[in-house]
Design goal:
Layout lengths: L1 H10 L2 H22 L19 H16 L6 E5 L7 H7 L5 E6 L2 H12 L5 E5 L26 E6 L8 H14 E14 L13 E2 L3 E3 L9 E4 H10 L3 E6 L16 E6 L1
Parallel strand pairs: 1-2, 1-4, 2-3, 4-5, 5-8
Antiparallel strand pairs: 5-10, 6-7, 7-8, 9-10
The structure holds S-adenosylmethionine.
S-adenosylmethionine (SAM) binds next to loops.
Length: 274
């Protein structure tokens, strides 16, 4: 049933998926706006295109993971690859101090616009950029992520995150992003990257299979290729290494059926260091 609903959802063009979500939540969003139940810093449900769950709580949990697993500090300069609609930026704005800095970029303009209006307006050291790149889950046009150069100088960040982004990108794109990550991280800089990682022992759980097998990577859907992508562990670690990044840790996520209490998140977290 889950798989069927997913197939149906993916069969729609990206713009329809956004519109469907907006319409589905319109009554609740209107009610919450009228009764003042939603604080100004939480986007309406119909605009949260970046995943399910409690938006504010999951953002806070992710930032807690940055501190615990990567040693994030309040003065750090942070890059958020695929900044979405501010799930990570919002709790970070409470954590980074005035000497800290945040840069985020994303390929979905609605999310970037919302972040600029709601977050940059209150926190000028938080900046967001819209970049026009193709991704068949989120949009139908744009340039190629496999040759995109991040719009930042070399060695300009202490910490970077790609949370639930490389799970929606294909190997040549991730390869380029790791190369760019190496360029923009300072020596000793750390990145928190989430993936679905598999090896020969991985048993894909029912309802969350990756049936399209391309050897070193697997897809959940072969029409919408970026819907969900899983990477073979050795292949991924070698790609990181080839791009100058040392893999410091792999924290397995509960997507693979492990008990939630044993995992810091749903997706697997790969911590790399330049
Ligand atoms: C599941 S959402 C996660 C958003 C955000 N990182 C979070 O945790 O809330 C995936 C995000 O990746 C963005 N994305 C997809 N392809 C991208 C690319 N090539 N470069 C940057 N962002 C991309 C999407 O627009 C979307 O905002």
């Amino acid at each position: 049933m889950k798989n069927l609903a997913r197939k149906f959802y993916y069969a729609m063009p990206p713009a329809w998926r956004f519109a469907t979500r907006r319409l589905y939540y319109l009554p609740l969003d209107t009610w919450e706006a009228v009764t003042g139940q939603r604080d100004g810093l939480t986007p309406p449900r119909g605009l949260i295109y970046t995943g399910s769950g409690d938006f504010r709580r999951s953002g806070q949990q992710t930032v807690d993971n940055f501190k615990e697993l990567c040693g994030l500090q309040p003065h750090h300069h942070v890059l958020d690859i695929g900044s979405g609609i501010g799930r990570i930026a919002l709790p970070l704005a409470q954590y980074l101090d005035k000497t800290g800095r945040y840069e985020g970029f994303d390929v979905v303009k609605k999310g970037v616009d919302w972040c600029q209006q709601q977050i940059t307006a209150r926190h000028p050291n938080f900046r967001f950029q819209y970049i026009s790149l193709e991704n068949d889950l989120y949009r139908s046009d744009g340039g190629s992520a496999s040759s995109f150069r991040f719009p930042y100088p070399d060695a300009s960040f202490d910490f970077a995150v790609a949370n639930s982004v490389f799970t929606h990108m294909l190997p040549p794109e991730v390869d380029n992003y790791l190369d760019e990550l190496y360029r923009v991280l300072r020596p000793g800089g750390v990145a928190y990257l989430t993936f679905f990682v598999f090896d020969e022992k991985t048993a894909f759980p029912s309802g969350f299979e990756f049936p399209y097998d391309y050897g070193h990577y697997r897809l959940m859907d072969d029409v919408v290729k970026s819907a969900n992508v899983a990477f073979e562990e050795q292949y991924l670690f070698e790609m990181a290494k080839r791009n100058g990044l040392a893999v410091r840790a792999l924290h397995k996520g509960f997507w693979r059926g492990l008990p939630k209490t044993e995992c810091p998140d749903f997706q697997d977290i790969v911590v790399v260091e330049r």
